[in-house]
Write a structure and sequence with these properties.
Elements: H1 12-17, E1 23-27, H2 34-50, E2 54-58, H3 65-72, E3 80-85, H4 86-90, H5 92-95, H6 103-106, E4 107-116, E5 118-122, H7 131-140, E6 146-149, H8 155-167, E7 172-175, H9 179-187, E8 193-197, H10 198-206, E9 211-215, H11 230-233, E10 242-249, H12 254-268, H13 271-279, E11 283-284, H14 289-308
Parallel strand pairs: 1-2, 1-3, 6-7, 6-8
Antiparallel strand pairs: 3-10, 4-10, 4-11, 5-8, 5-9
Length: 315
């Protein structure tokens, strides 16, 4: 059962000897995205404390699921870890008919590292300048507006699918191998709009390379306080956040789950680390493995209802 190993008694010897070599954090998306940014900040500080490298490896593909599979198949010795999106833990099980693995059985949660909002952005030459104008144009031109994502079934895709459902519009999905490649296509005019995680998207907005249309959460982002929430801009009740969760392969000793939780929690409590993450638009979180298990189960059940009531389904 998910997370039960993390509740077993400690073995002090195994805990204190870890790590004796480089630890690899697998981020299942290309470099430059928000989860990659957050992972590198935290991994660098862990390496400083350990005196051992904590290496962020980007293994993009298949909406992040290739990277997840790579961690699941790794030896359960603590040296290969997964920093993944909430969707990989909660939504994929309902969304994909042939996922090939069960996250609840294959991964042991350590903690949620950080959470953030998503930012709805548009190409500068795309006429709509706000949410209501986007909705109006999409209703006039169903399926003629193209939106990008980090991959089919990923958090950026699902955010737009929910946006479409809540507003009664239809836009055409163009999946990419990560949010950053999709943003590049948007700036080049190959797609018109997309959701992007705020830490990755804010600098494009501040540099004047894209237009910000709305924030996905109930509260505005401190990083872009001038950008309205989607709820206040025309879609009441719209509220989605994204979180980044750390986990290890099933079979990893409980001592290593406990050690990683302790060390990551310590790092996230350091003032300069918090300042860096908040500056990128990510809110440090840190919860216990048991609390992460409970959150995964609650969100899995909630999203299963949403997916059952929609036409979103993949092989």
């Amino acid at each position: 059962m998910l997370g039960l190993a993390a509740l077993m008694p400690l073995n002090a010897g195994a805990q204190e000897n870890f790590p004796s070599r480089a630890v690899h954090w697998i981020v299942p998306f290309p470099p430059g995205g928000s989860i990659d940014i957050v992972g590198r900040v935290v991994a660098a500080r862990l390496a400083h404390h350990w005196g051992r490298p904590c290496v962020v490896e980007n293994r993009a593909g298949n909406g992040g699921r290739d990277g997840v599979r790579g961690v699941i198949s790794a030896p359960p010795d603590g040296y290969t870890q997964l920093l993944a999106l909430n969707t990989h833990y909660t939504i994929d099980r309902s969304l994909f008919k042939n996922l090939g693995y069960d996250p609840e059985k294959a991964l042991l949660p350590v903690t949620i590292v950080a959470s953030t909002s998503q930012l709805l952005i548009g190409n500068l030459l795309f006429p709509p300048k706000n949410i209501n104008e986007l909705i109006a144009l999409a209703k006039q031109r169903p399926n003629e507006i193209h939106y990008g994502s980090s991959g089919a079934g990923g958090s950026l895709h699902l955010a737009m699918a929910l946006f479409n459902a809540r507003t009664g519009i239809e836009m055409s999905h163009v999946p990419h191998k990560g949010g950053t490649p999709a943003a590049v296509e948007l700036m080049a005019g190959q797609i018109q709009v997309m959701f992007i995680n705020t830490p990755a998207g804010a600098h494009y907005v501040k540099a004047g390379r894209v237009r910000a249309l709305g924030i996905s959460t109930a509260q505005r982002s401190p990083q872009l306080p001038e950008v309205p929430t989607i709820a206040e801009a025309g879609v009441p009740g719209f509220n989605i956040d994204v979180w980044y969760g750390l986990s290890l392969p099933a079979g990893t000793p409980a001592t290593l789950i406990t050690r990683m939780h302790r060390d990551v929690t310590q790092v996230l409590g350091e003032a300069d680390v918090r300042k860096q993450l908040i500056g990128y638009g990510a809110e440090p979180v840190s919860i216990t493995p048991a609390d992460m298990v409970r959150r995964i189960r609650a969100e899995t059940a909630a999203w299963a209802k949403v997916i059952r009531g929609s036409s979103i389904k993949f092989e």
